[in-house]
Amino acid sequence: MESILQVAKRADLFFMEASPIHETMRRLSKTLNEMQISFAIAGAMAANAHGHKRTTSDVDILIRREDLLRFKERWIGRGWVDKFEGSKNFRDAVTNINVDTLIVGDFPGDGLPKPIAFPTPESVSEHNAEGLPFISLKTLIELKLASGMTATHRMQDMADVMNLIRINKLATSYSQSLNPYVATKFEELWKAAQINEDY
Questions:
Q1: Contacts of 180 (CB under 8 A, 6+ apart)
Q2: Residue 159: which H helix or E strand, with range?
Q3: What average pLDDT does range 13-30 have in this prediction?
Q4: Lowest mean pLDDT among 11-20, 96-105, 185-194
Q5: Residue, of 152 and 58, whose pLDDT is higher
Q6: Is the pLDDT of residue 15 over 90?
Q7: Across the beta sheet with 80-82, what order do the strands follow?
Q8: Are 40 and 135 in contact (CB under 8 A)?
């Protein structure tokens, strides 16, 4: 059981971008770039890149299935470890941080076919000042909405969207740029995000 001091120290390292999670993200990015594999960082780390600062325990990447297999063939057992045989996810043996993969063409949330699928990384990535590729704000919102709408246990996705709306001061008209499948849900969350709890 971690003490409050240990939790606070871990959070400090995260927000200083000096945590084991950031180390894994940078190490993996360097390796994939050297292999000329297209990818984009997604999930909570992408939310952080777009202004919603919160801690997380893993790194999510968007990648093609064949590129993931190519990475694994070369690197599993050499600093990276499969979660289990046949898993699409893996672990950094140096930091013990998990890497979860979003496979191009698969579907967010419940995994069933829907109007939104995981896109190709190069079509939706934006690079930060460090040169790391993160999925765009629009793509992040669409994927999180599609996930939360179809997997009711993923309430964090909806909370992330609300916080991204607030932090980026998105207008309700932003829904017009989104896939129609998630536009109405965005508008619902936009209204909820306008509630001011300061009394």
A1: 115
A2: helix 155-167
A3: 90
A4: 11-20
A5: 58
A6: no
A7: 80-82, 90-92, 98-103, 58-63, 39-42, 133-135, 125-127
A8: yes
Do residues 157 and 144 touch, judged by C-beta distance below 8 A? yes
Question: Around 184, how many Cα atoms within 13 Å sit in the side-chain half-sphere?
Answer: 2
pLDDT in tens, 31-60: 999 999 999 999 999 999 999 999 899 999
What token pair was written down for 47?
A: 């939310």
Structural domains present in the chain: 4-193 (3.30.460.40)
Residue type at 181? Y
Strands 80-82 and 90-92: antiparallel
Reported as half-sphere exposure (CB side, CA atoms, 13 A), residue 127 has a value of: 9
R_g of the chain computed on alpha carbons: 17
User: CB under 8 Å to 184, separation ≥6 — which residues?
Assistant: 175
Distance between CA atoms of residues 25 and 92, nearest Å: 10
Q: Is residue 4's pLDDT more than 90?
A: no
Q: Are 168 and 141 in contact (CB under 8 A)?
A: no
Instruction: Give bridge partners of residue 81 from the DSSP assignment.
Output: 91
- Please state the length of the chain: 199
Q: How far is CA 174 from CA 98, 127, 144, 195, in A?
A: 33, 22, 15, 18
Does 193 have pLDDT greater than 80?
Answer: yes
Q: What pLDDT score does 77 carry?
A: 95
